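This part of the workshop introduces the protein records we will be handling. As an example, a complete record with its sequence and its structure tokens follows.
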Amino acid sequence: MIKLSGEEAVAKATKECGIDHLFYVTGGMTRMFPVIEKTGMNMVLCRNEKAAANMADGFSRITNKPSMCYAQHGAASAILASMLYEPMYAHSPVVALTGSVPTKTKDQWSYQECYEMPYFESTCKFSADVVDVARLAEYIRIAAQIAVSGCPGPTHISMHNDMASAVAEMPEIYGDRKFFKIPPFRTRAEPESIMEAAKLLINSENPVMVCGTGVHLSEAYDEVRKLAELLTIPIATNVFGKGCFPEEHPLSLGVTGDYGSEVTNDFVRQADLVFFVATRAGRQMTEDFTAPEPGASKIIHLDIDPVVIGRNYKADVALVGDAKSTLRDLLKLLKRMCKKRSSRGKKLAEVSHAMKKYENIISPMLESEAIPIKPQRIMREVSKALGPNDIVVSDTGQMICWSTRLLKLKEVGKVYIPCSGTLGSSFALAMGVSFGARKNQRVLNLIGDGGITYNLSELETILRYNDDHVPFVALINNNSCFSQTRPHNEDWSKKTAPHMSYSDLGQLDFAKIAESFGCYGLKVEKPSEIGEAIQNAFDSGKPAVVDVTSEKREYAPLGMIRRSQEETMKKFGVVSY
């Protein structure tokens, strides 16, 4: 047994559990922060609790390591909890620490008193209200281990404000290095199930693999590629799986689902076997369960979380295990079973023809010289400007629609990180990524003018820690509106876009705003200037903003509504893709 204060227990426990970054907003247990910092913790003081959660999420996503975020009691905890939706959906191992009023003063209407625990029920894998300081370190260790285990996700520990200075005897504090990174253990599917999957794959005439988040978490990149090449299986990914397979590979189909392209979804619909790899196969990722339709094709479903198997699609073969280890076992078996399998040259030609046809359709928009700039052209210029190690972090809304479809990645790995659906969260998410990225990497945030204002104050944060992160640039698709909702009320009979009070915003110059923070800012109004602006921003030595004036009336096709939308647009001679 050892005798420590609560703040000393937190400091020692986080270090023993391999947590080396804390993103926080000061308040509550402020005397705890210097004690934690002395252990070597990298402390990042944020401007708001949402950003603290987003930055921790970004750091954990790029590193596969647990990180920590902190908010004080009351409304601050509620704000932090709401943003933990992002790492929950993205399977990111964030450990949230919050304060609460002292146990001795509970229910006496203390300042900012509320019961915080319910906030975390739907956004965390595990949440505990610790009332005994002697068990505080134990609970932090539990939270860190749960965060990285199985299907990863955020966890939460509530400690009461009087615990920081309270002293108690407690067991020797320790951590297990196996839980310092995802995955701590590589579980494998049963050999019998792997054999069944192998037989289905060999006997299938028209298989497709759909890969998701877990391929990144497991780092199963080689295994996915080798399996695709062994059996000539086209590879589609969902939004979160983008980047797990070479996008220039002849078997690459692109992204499926609501934000994916028609050609990709159609390939999945036509498959006689769909192999879901490390994805939940949810409604959005399968375009409302039409790609594929339940029952239309055989299903192999591989996932580390058994509760997702059979949720939306009846699995002919269920493989429960780590993606990398299970695919390795499957590959070994397949190589013995199909040594003399004939080449599927016809399938390669089919994929190539379909993708070239798609490229020909979208090419005019990608090369458009129109002013205001078309977002499709922005994606083309970003693709050209990216270096081999650069990381793109995309916001939701129209930006995720354009980037998943049109952005061309140069590398395989965690080089494309989308936010999980919370508008504006990608700005701070990208900042967190920049703290965890390798020294030879750069981070480019793609975000709209509607999203950037949610966390715009964090420009001061990223500048304050300018020596602690890799180069960071935010490119803003500035069309002065919330463009995701705008097309539902568009009147294409009018030659110019009419003002819509429920979606249109005022015009802001974000380059000047960035400069007022002390950052680097550039305003771009011509398509030919985008690439140079991105390069100058990265070379500036400061966090930077590239503000691109874009076409308000250019809407990304979205989900099943795209067909009726396109028919309406065609009546008035409007072409968009």
